[in-house]
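Project channel, design review

CF: Before we commit to the Amphiprion ocellaris constructs, I'd like one complete example in the thread so the newer folks can see what an input/output pair looks like. Taking BTB domain-containing protein.
RD: sounds good, go ahead.
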Amino acid sequence: MNVSEPHLHAAGPTTVRSGLLLPPCVTDGPPYLQLSFKRHHEAQPAEPPELLELIFLLDSEHAKLHSSPSTMSHASSSSSLVSLDSSVFFSDTPASCVTEPLDFLLVNVGGRRFVLSQELLASHPETRLGKLASCSRDSVMELCDDADLLRNEFFFDRSSQAFQYVMNFYHTGHLHVGEELCEISFLQEIQYWGIDELQISTCCRERYYRRKEHKEALDLRPDFEDDDDDEDFVGAACPAIRCRLWDLLENPESSRAARTFGSLSMFFVVVSVVNMVLISLDFGEEFGVSPPMLLEVMEYVCVVWFTAELTLRFLCVRNKCRFSRSIPNVIDLMAILPFYVTLAVENLHGGSTELENMGRVVQVLRLLRSLRMLKLGRHSTGLKSLGMTIAQCYEEVGVLLLFLGVGISIFAAAVFALEYDLPTTTFTSVPAAWWWATTSMTTVGYGDVRPDTALGKVLAFLCILSGILILALPIAIINDRFSACYFTLKVKEAAVRHGEMLKRLNRGSLGEAGPVGGRANLRDNYARSILEMLRLQGRERASTQSSGGEELWW
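CF: and here is what came back for BTB domain-containing protein:
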C-alpha cells in the first residue's frame, strides 16, 4: 500500500519537505535538528511503501496523543518512530525527542552490528558498554569512536571476532578464549571493553595464562641475543663502513664474505679447543719428546684472531655500555682473558712463594680456555635455544632445586641417624650423608658412601624413587620450552634471510647471486627460503599435534 499525498497532509502535525517525512518533534525543534534529521534520512536507502505507511500511522497516533491532555503523560512512551533495519528494532527519534532511555543499543564493531539490551548491560556497569548504557548524551563520544544518536547506533573500530566473546560474556557471564585468538591481542581487546582477565572461565584460564606467559617471554629479547641493528650507527662516525663491518662480523647471511668469516670463526674455536687438549698432554713422559712448537704457535694465532674479532665489534658499536653488558661479549672476553693473565704471570721474575701460587692459578686459567666452546653459540641455534630455555625456565629450575634440597636434607638426616653408630659406617658426618643423598636422588650413585643396615637400604630405595619423581616433574615443561625456543629461532633466522634477500633484490645486487644470471638466481634463493620457513612451520604444527596442542607452550 502506497502512502498518498492527501494522507500526508491530513495528518496535520506531520510535515513533508522535499519528499522527507518530518515528525512534529523535529519541525518544532531548532533548525540544526531538522538538518541533522534530513541528512540522516538522505544517507539511508529508500524505505518501502509499507514501512512509510507504518511510520505515518505511528506519527498520526503521536499527534493525537500530544493534542489530548489526558494522554500527555503517556505520549512520551509512544512517541518514538520505529523503523526496521537488519531485523533489529531501534529508535529513530532524535535525541531532543527522547524522554526515556531506549531498551536496546545497536553496537557496530568493525562493521558488524550487535544488539544489546539496557537490562543486560546494566548487570555489568563497570564495563565500557555498561557505562555507555547509563551515561548522558554529552559523554557518549568519550566511550565510543562515533555515534548515530538518531538510530541509537554506536561505532567501535575494534575486532569483531574478539567482540563475539565479549557478547557471550554479557549473555552468559562467562568469558571464554578461542584457540584461534592471540592471547596478547585478546587481552588488549578485553581491557578496552573494560573486562578484567580474571573473568576468564576456569576451563580456559590455564591455557590462556600459560600461552600468554610464554609469548611474553619470547617477545622479550634476551641479553644473549646481541642484535645491534643499523640504527646504532646513525649519527656515528663513518656509519656506512661501520654498518658493513658489523654485517661482516654478525650477519653471516648478508654476503659471501660474511659467511666465510663466520666459518673461519667456528674453525678457530674448534682448533683452539683441540690445541688446548694437546698442550695439556705430558709429551715428555708419554712420548719422550718435547711439546711441538706448532701448538704454541697455533695458540697465539687463535688468540690473536679472537682478540681482533672482539676489538672490531667493540669499535663498531656506538653503545659501548650495552655491548659490555651483553652475555656473548662477556663470554668472548673470558675466553681470551686467561691467555693474557697467564702470559703476564709467566713473564714475572722471581721465585717467591706468591709466584708459585700464581703458577697454580695459571694452570686453572689455562683450563678456562674451554669457555671458547661457548663462542659457538653465535653460530648454533641449538645453543641459543638452550640459553633461552634456561633464561625462561628459571622458576621451574628454582623449584626443582628447592625440592631436591628438601629431599636431600630429610634423607641425609634420617640415614645418618640410622648408620652413624656402626663400626664400619661410611656416614662419618652429616655432610657425608648429604653427599650420599645427592648422588642417590640424582640417580648417580658413586658407591663411596652407602648404607649397611636393612632399614638404611629401604631408606635409600625411597630416596632414589623420590629423586626420580622430583626430576621428572619439570622435564616436560623444560622440553616444551626448548622446542618452542628452537622453532622460534629457526623462524627468525629464516625471516632474516628473507629480509637480506629482499634487500639484495631491491639493490639489484647481481654480483653475489651466482653464475646463473644474477637476478633470477636471487629469486630462486628467495623462493627456497620461503619454502624453508613453511617447512619449519609445518614441523612445528606436527610436533604440537603429536604432543597434544594443550601441552605445548607455543
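RD: helpful, thanks. The chain has a mean pLDDT of 71.
CF: The chain has five domains: 5-84, 97-219, 230-379, 394-472, 475-547.
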